[in-house]
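Researcher: We're teaching a course module on how sequence relates to structure. For the next exercise, students receive a sequence and then see the predicted structure as tokens, so they can try to spot secondary structure elements on their own. Here is the exercise chain.
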Amino acid sequence: MSNTPLVDPPITRKPLTPLAGDGCVRVVDPPEIAITMTPDAAEISGLRLIAEADEARRRANPLA
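Model: And here is the predicted structure for the students to work with:
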């Protein structure tokens, strides 16, 4: 058993930047590992993802 203390991952303060496509949402430069975010960054990222998902649906179904 190791006595090495666990180190908390760095906390990301920058929200994700999703982009709507035709029927998809792409996140630019997502980290390759799990990230720890501040509550504000997580909330803004969630709101951005929801908004871009709505736009992606509209692009995929423009007559709906």
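Model: If you want an answer key for the exercise: The mean pLDDT is 86. The longest strand covers residues 18-20.
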